[in-house]
Amino acid sequence: MTQHAFLPRHKFDDLLAQLRQSGYRTLGPVLRDGAIVYTDIAAVEDLPAGVTVNAQPGAFRATPGDSPRLFAWANGPQALKPVVFKPVETLWQAQPGAGGELEFSAAVPIDEPVAVLGARACDLAALKLQDRHFLNGEYRDPCYMQRRRQLFLVAVNCTHPASTCFCASTGDGPGASRGYDLLLDELDDGFIVAAGSDRGAQIAAALCLQDATDAQRREADEAVQRAAAQQTRSIPPGDLHDPLLARRDHGRWLEVAERCLACGNCTQVCPTCFCNSEHDENFLDRDGSVHVRQWDSCFTAGHSYIHGMVIRSETRHRYRQWLTHKLGSWHRQYGRSGCVGCGRCIVWCPVGIDITEEVRAVLENIDDF
Length: 369
Hints:
By secondary structure, this protein is of the alpha+beta class.
């Protein structure tokens, strides 16, 4: 295919059909219970055509409209994390063997290949961080690895950010530069298509694509530039580990704790958080047990429980741990900040705590750093 081709809007179902013919289960954005979530889609009619989003601290409203556009909305609560890092899954099971001794066996998932439509640049950046955690260390997580290998990503450049978005300040959006198999720029009459992998090029080659005109490409580029210019929130650049630790006794930690419910919503919707807990469940109908992993949060008391003692017993300590780790320690672990500027933690916080406000309040004279 050409580097930038054009898919007319009435041919978009051909892309979905080609993905299914290639063996992919197709997930896409759907308006459900007032939010945009990723679930199985069968046709273009399942996508949120005309839907726009108004997201504010502690509030999210999706409104249907008459526009033909399918992706003119800001992100909902889900990212790509649940697709590859399941909220709950069995890691292994134990059963008595023939001689009575316990036998352990891994529970590697048998999942079909998945194609996700509508991934945004911030979520691609977050997935890359998840890859570093689960795949780049000495131990590679087999469950994550299998799902990741079978994941096909159709990204869409973001043109309608929420007021809570700040991906431009983190360098992770609103336009995608890597990490996708296919990249779409949506226009009124169709989509500019670019392939980012051999798999993506194969899918694109099977479509009836036209050459994208210079005017279409210019319109797409200008839409992404406007989306970046619309963002008013930001976080300070660089490694904030030392500046934040130097302010570990700052009064703002207590102030935010008086508002924070320690509910963990921010970590559940965060596309990069990976904290989890593990426990055993016994079979009720036979001998044996399964070892289960599930998402956890550093805002829970049990997360810092060590040898009969809760290390971070106060909410201010938990919020400080989350923020300092996310914006500081991640640089030492993964080479960059753990925040991709998606703004989900602001929107889905029940009391509307804004990470950009909190970090600037703690680092009052940020220009000093």
